[in-house]
Amino acid sequence: MPRDHKTPPIQKIAKQACITYRVPKSSADVSDSRSELISPVTTVRVADLKIAPRKSKPSSGAARLQSPPVTYMHICETEVFSMGVFLLRPGASMPLHDHPDMNGNLRSC
């Protein structure tokens, strides 16, 4: 299979997150930097994450009921930022909550 040598979207996001959150900046610089971070976040697709659904036994309806409604997939962590993906089963939700002194970029696919 030939490689297209394009930088994967997740790597683009990680690189920009490092730039955005690395050092304190003026408010104008932070705004520009966050815009640069939001752009690749909005273009990432589920397929870019290379996630395959869990394989369950065909006769196991109970297995689906026992699987967690929300799963966290850790992608990377540096001194500057942490990146992960929350995978929600259809119909699942996460309660609104606060992380003081933390920034987040969210995307629903």
TrEMBL record:
SUPFAM superfamilies: RmlC-like cupins. It holds the Pfam family PCO_ADO. Keywords: Iron, Metal-binding, Oxidoreductase. InterPro entries: PCO/ADO, RmlC_Cupin_sf. One of its GO terms (molecular function) is oxidoreductase activity, acting on single donors with incorporation of molecular oxygen, incorporation of two atoms of oxygen. It comes from the Eukaryota. GO terms for cellular component: mitochondrion. This is 2-aminoethanethiol dioxygenase. The lineage of its organism: Eukaryota, Metazoa, Chordata, Craniata, Vertebrata.
